[in-house]
User: Fold these one by one.
Assistant:
Number 1:
Amino acid sequence: MSVVASFTRAHYDVLLAVRQPQPDYGEEVLVDSGEAFVFHRLAMQDLAAALRDRHDCIVLEGLREDVLPALQAIRHAGHETPVIVLGHDDLGWGLEAFDQGAQDVLEGATVDAALLARSIRYGVQRQRAELSARELREGRLQQAEQARLERGLIPVPLLRSGDVRCGAAYRAGGRRRLLGGDFFDVVELADGSVRVVIGDVCGHGPDEAALGVALRVAWRSLVLAGAEPDATLAALDTVFAAERHRPGFATVCDATIAPDRRSLEVRLAGHPPPLLLAGPALEAGTAPAGPPLGSQRRTTPIPMSRWILPEAWTMLFYTDGLFEVRQRDGDRLWPEGLGELAAQLAPAWGDLDGWAAKVVAEVEALADAPLTDDIALLVVAYRATP
Amino acid sequence: MTASSTADGAADSDGADLTEPLVLELFLGGRSRRGVETERLLRRIIAERGGDGSQLEVIDVFDAPERAEAAGVLATPTLIRRSPGPPVRVIGGLDDARLFLALLDLPDEPPDDEERP
């Protein structure tokens, strides 16, 4: 309706279902306060089919026996379009119509046009406000759920000695800050050895996050129960296979720091090795990787590498979201680039959490676009106590 | 439906031949000032057509509810253009005579101020 569009500020599409339609009503438009309400008239019995199309409002005109079943049909169809009722009898059933979801009930034919316009306008606005409020509510619930899962993914390290410290940084991925399945944990055992794990369940979302929490808790339980690294990884593989809801895999790096802090055993199930900083220098450390958890090519045990550690060191355990970042020149950062970046920032023994956050912030600054993957960085450092 | 007529003013884009007599029905809910003004405006438009058979019927829905029901009137005021061309109905809109007339493809120049009722 070009006239309507050129003369009015807003245009509402209104589905009008009536008891007895006459053929050829032609075009029908209500104009009020500079706004137009264009009616699409049809018989009440044709309403169900018309609900497939989107309209700003539905007006039902007729008797109780026509209107109440139509309201029920709209509700059962899960339609959220506001409904205004124009009743044609004494309207003693008005409350029933409200109970069935009507936004307003007016007396048809004798109702003032401005009142009908206002009723439709308010109905539409009220519905929009309710949808916004619901989205806000759902967003808050999702945030709370994410916070719960995040707490499960990021534990409080169990460290007893003062010579080993750790810090961590975690970012949920994407603009919506969706949780993924990155997890990590640190446990110091009675013999003084420190066990470290970091892992990454492929995919994003609450299912993957819950699986990450399950793997972390299983790992901590196994370690506290005295399970050796090989047995721990084998059990994690079993847990992963039992708990996953769909095909997928998880990568894990399991590391054991000797009680004297001068050696490290590393086992990699499809995960990149840790980065080792001796003072400000990056020391290259390599380790053969076995297949990830959930792989059909499972071999037992996962290959183990032993690293000799310097007198003081800082180790970075990380997930792929941190090094697969594409930089502005088009190249990915890769673990080597991450290590060089971390070395330039000089680890801060007194504030490893802050330093980890700084490393992540630097990586984000290098990226050519907002990071879509979740990222986890665990920093474990050793300084001999005086 | 569009507001503009063709160059010779004979027909609009919905196929209505505007040289044909106008047949209008105005449904009002009682006698309001706006209703009276609109009725006068429409009668003036018909008068200006020089007795070509155009006609306006004014129906008060409180006096003749059966007419309103038969015509499927939703609310008042409602103006139905029965002819020429396909039916068109405009509900409300009396506050803006220009829009009101444009929607009905009626001449879009309201009467001179001194001649307004």
Note: Chain A has a mean pLDDT of 86.
Number 2:
Amino acid sequence: MSGAWRSAGDGVPLSQLVRRAVEGEQSAWNGIVDRFSGLVWSVCRLFRLGEADAADVAQTVWLRTVEHLPALREADALPGWLSTTTRHECLRVLKQRNRQSFYPGDDVVERTVDPDAPDLDAAIVAAERRAAVLEALALLPDHCRALIELLVRDDRPSYAEIGARLQMPIGSIGPTRSRCLDKLRSSPVLRGWAPGSPIDPSEY
Amino acid sequence: MSSSSYDHRSDDSEPTPAFLAEVRAALADQDAVPRRVVEAGYAAFAWRSIDAELAELLYDSATQELATSGSRSDQATVRAMTFASEQANIELEVHDDAVLGQIVPALSGDVVVIVDGEPVLRRPVDEVGVFRLQPVPTGTFRLRFEGAGTTILTGPITAG
């Protein structure tokens, strides 16, 4: 599915999406959901929630976000707020589940997690950092985003294929790639994150 | 932007494998989200104008959990749940053939069953706040009370 993701929020800074959503624009809201669903979902998964529970948590988080959005002073605070709110909702679900003697569902085997584990904190920070990478990616020019998404795929297409797909001379793919990656790394969105911050060790 | 980055013209050069791995992991995060979960997130925007108050689960006999002081000693054979909001509590009893509920204190209005953000059933609340949902909604749903100038939305419920 990599490379197939297109969002109404592509290219639009978060502050603008938030302002437009507060003003009532559904497509701006969708852009926010597109951009941060990955963060909400991966935090749920870190708490080992099953898919049904994670879906419930995600919806509750978005409902709370709709409520909270007008009071949000700084759009930049939204990712951290989402991560904290998701964590809180996950803990609530786990608390309920763990006290339940019988739960008729497939989540029962996945319900144990130590919410105080230091690894969990680090993993949540890593998830927030990946969300910042996604946000930075969303703000790149279209051709850069498309190129990077193609290049990082496990089944990365050949340069000839990439050139054909993006209507780009093969000779310019390498230099464009470098330029786009530079843009991505120097994105203002990633400024708060030290380069080479630890990434989720479980992923690699 | 540093000019040195322009030097990496070889197809095989991987100047920043760790960073690329992180970009790949970030895209994988995004791809992992089921489409219906994203769409439920879009649908949450509909609550914006309604300004619904979220009612939190206070008690569920299935978990024997009572979050606040007080006690319920009766060992009911039906599942009982309480959702609390500032305006009113929503009490539920899950029977085999129906869910019986009560808005406490009684408010006049309707109760709507919401599945995946969409209303699927609407039932009136009587003068003492009682409502009946028949048959028992399957899967996970939320209840929304609308009336008396207020809207109250419960957390997710799985009754079946």
Note: Chain B is about 20% helix and 40% strand.
Number 3:
Amino acid sequence: MERNRSRDLKPIIMLVLAIVIVAGLLWSYNQLISKEEAVDSSWAQLESNYQRRHDLIPSLVATVSRYLEHEQETLQGVVEGRAQQANANVSRILEAVNSASTTAEEATATSASEAPKNEETLRRIARAQAQLSVQSRHLMAVVENYPRLHSSDQFLTLQAQIEGAENRINVARMRYNDAVEAYNAAIRRIPGNLWASLGQLQRKAYFEADEEAEDAVTPVFD
Amino acid sequence: MPLLRFSINALALLLLVACSRPDSWLEDHTGLLSEGQAAYLENYHAHLLEDHGIDYRVVIEDGHADINRRSVEWFENLAVGGRSENGKGLLLLLDPEQDQVRIEVSQALEGVYPDALISYLEHRQMVPFFRDGRVADGIVATTELIVTRAQEAEANQAFDPSTLPAATGGAGATVDADLGKGRPSSDTTQPSGMAAPQGGPRQTVDAYLHAMDNRNDNPDLPIYTGATRRMLAEWTMTPAQMDNVVRAYRACSEGEVLTSTDGQFAVLRYGMDERQCSPWFLQNAGNGWKLDLTVLQQAIGFGRDNTWHFRRQEFHRYRFAFMDWRLDGNGYPHSERMLRWGLSTATSDEQQTFVIGVQPASAAAEFGFQWGDRLVSWNGTDVEHHRHALQLMGQARTGEEQTIIIERAGQSRTLQGPAPEKPDQ
């Protein structure tokens, strides 16, 4: 009697177990997919913040150049070479900012969708963007020598926008790294690693710490 | 080790959440603000949520890490914006040790408070107060402009109606706080020559607005009365305040100038429906009209919605210009009402009754009453106090000849004329 009942129950238990396991695997797959989507959307956010900064660079360069031209006119014949020398230096920095921005924009745009999958691509973008950060910070520091420009409302507005874009980039990078960390940890764990081993899901690339990225950058000296 | 670090972090967070009161708006970990100032801020920020749905927190702490990063952490830990129905959150993080201040803006508010505006408010409004060591005032004065912006945005429906998460994407601005650094050297002090007292009250107000437009914060402009200059010398006048005055009055109508019967005082006032436009008070200085900003400071208050009201219904020399306005118990003016007599009186401590206001173009003005006249008798009855005067005025029948004896500058005078028409009962 007893044995009979347990024999009857066995297939049912097996079926329930199988259902539970399949459901668990599907659930974990869905979890992985939503983690991957989180990585992609945080990358998209970062990209749009990079773009935000690129869009601001031309007006920053234009504002500073316009000021220098104006100053050049008022200086003409009054003060000798020193001030002109300084202005020439700022002009060089402006060019450096401009070209860093163009390079970074191109590097980001051409391989943007690749980046989270490919560490080398991500590093290249990070380096190009870090170069731009360093150059624009360098420009901001030099502008402090021009108190009239530095304290003007127009420049303060631009400065706030550029700094705002940089801060957004930092926040988005932090969130991107968090999303990648969660995703990478999930595909290493059971049962995520089972799905990963099927070849669909790959490890995503991280951003290195700021210092490493910026060490590779050489600012233009004045 | 990572586990240990995690539990320490978790413990710190738990402690933090346990320490902060659920309805608190301010976390001052440095004791920079007095208890009174803290209570004032708490109250102000509670109203900001009530009136404009903005959840605005203030954190004051010394720290070593990057202020921008800490600001994002605080924003998340305190769930700033969570008290607002649609994710409108602001966080002010002041770090006295690093001498930096940051305002962080939630995604739902980014359109209304872009980084450049936040930076402007910090540089041009908050920091000038901080330089004078007035931290709480700087925070509140900045909040006032945040409210002004919120009102504009509400009027233009600029607030994003879609409900965004109460989270920050790193929007906002960080500036040097310059706490207690004092005002910048006076080489920027502007000349006073342009702002001379003008031939008419309106022209003097225009000269003042022109000076504000040039951000002329010189407290010694010749258009100011002596008392005004003394008051302004103690004041923190910020570029943002000056910009705001100019912007606010640009939206006002021409207004009307009312001059006291003795020609010594004038008011430029705006319509009852323009309550964002507070009146100007002027004195005749002989060589032209000067602006008296002390009255604005003492007798005019501003509500949370930036509309003005009389702070006290006190005996002041400019009452004449508001005789046709009815003030309620809180000093808020209400719909205009032409008074029968247009005469306002008050009783002094010596039980003498004085004229404290004459409504322009009223019966009292026609009789020739002036501010400061002492009422001696009315139709032969001695005036005992101002309520008695009111009674005597009420008794006068339409068209009946009235004889009033007053004392002006020590001399007795008689005023005569027919009583004005009685309003319909």
Note: The mean pLDDT of chain A is 83.
Number 4:
Amino acid sequence: MPGTSRQQPSRRAMLNQLVAAAAALPLIRLLPAAPNDQHDEWVEIDGWILKRSDVA
Amino acid sequence: MIFDTFQAFRSAEFAPKVVIIGSGPAGITVARKLAAKGVAVAIFEAGGEQFSPQSQAFYDGKVIGDPYFELDDTRLRQLGGSSGHWGGWCRLLDAEDFQAKPWVADSGWPIARSDLEPFLAETGDILGLPPLQADAPLSKDIRWVHLIKSEPVRFGEKYRSELAASPNLALVLDTYVTALKGDGTQVSGFDVWSAGAPQGAYPCEYAVVATGGLENSRLLLWSNEQSAGAVVPHAAALGRYWMEHPHFQCGNAVLTDADSIATSDHNDAFFSPTWRAMERKQILNFGIRLIKMPYEGMKMLVANLACTAPGTAEWVSEGLGQRLKCAAQLHMAWEQAPTAENGVQLSHARRDAGGVPRIELVWRKNDLERRTLAEGIRLFGQTLAQADLGRVRIADWIAKLQDYPVEREELGGNHHMGGTRMGTDPTTSVVDRNGAVHGMRNLYVAGSSVFPTSGQCNPTMTIVALACRLGDHLVEKIAADEAVASVKGNDAPAGGDVIPTAGD
């Protein structure tokens, strides 16, 4: 927009953001998996339609 | 009144306002509606009161494309039409079946299910049905659906005495209408063949073609050919968009509890996709029939699995343990994509005894249908697994992407739909929302040939509901036409032959 400018973050600020993102990674695993339509949660073995947990 | 021959009918000098060609569920239903309102009506039935091989031979034809039933086996040419071998399965098409599916070309009806719902009670009386139960969702993708197995109504048997007693109705047997005559705006009469010989022309004021889902196309195609297009003036879709409900066994299931899925007295239950699932997967409607198998069948299924996949068999046995009590066969019938290439053609080489070209039926299943089959069984399997109701095994020929099995019993449902489909666009339809042939004042079509799309369920209930609606429409149309004629000071029908009616 006219009359505004975006200030570049400092190197230190960028480093802090990276550290925070790395720390959050284990938490992301706890989030429920998004539903998908690609059969990722299903496996077919010899024609049987099974939940992945059936064969884990 | 019942006449065994056309000659006897002519001698009686009964003058019908409406002639209905064909005495199947659609024809008899429209006729009864009209007669009850005092409209003089004649039903011309090409066959006799009972089945005969001689009459049935008129239905011989040829199939081009995928394997299908013999055309003289898949329908009946006799009083009551194909209700004589109907199985009794009843369900009205779903509300979603009337909607256009943006991912399916040429889909959608010009009417909604709500246009037929006022006739549900009447249809239920005609077919002797219990109240319909609402569908129940099983998952976001699959719903349990109520398909009624009724005591099949043989229309000829059920309504014979009523037809015989009605003073407004003449049932004329052994009367084969071989061609309609028209001028591009209305029909004026028919060529009739009876007692083994041509009987000349017979005039009409209003005509309803109700000869079945194959024969309607044949009669109108031949009539058009004989009249240079003056019977169906907008004929681009005539004979085309023909559909069936392909039927195949699509797999088996082991159920975790014999009572986990409620089944009917016939040991079966039916399932269909939700609109959301059809839209998300871009597929057609389908119906899965789950038929519980006896215990021996379950043991064979697991034993078979142990031979081919011991690990999975062990999982099935151990994982489900004592809850493994029941197995089931899974059969699927699906909505066929309406494609112009599938349809009824007239043979250039073969004619029946009345001189009418025999049918050549072009019929093929397409890729969208194959995808519907494959996605449908998987959606059902995932639903059972997700709810821990059981596990599904897809039939080998589906899992291994092989051709359809060629088993006579499993080819289709003997459901003949399309060919004179209903719509607003004359380039893709033949009749309007009321069943009137586009551009024709007094010519109507009844029966499943007017279906623009097939849905997944058996068509008879929808055929009868549509016929009830057409009957009411015709009563109003005739009254309106007579009012106009009265204002003009002319009681004669607009154009065509002058015919005294029974009420005159």
Note: The helical segments of chain A are 11-30.
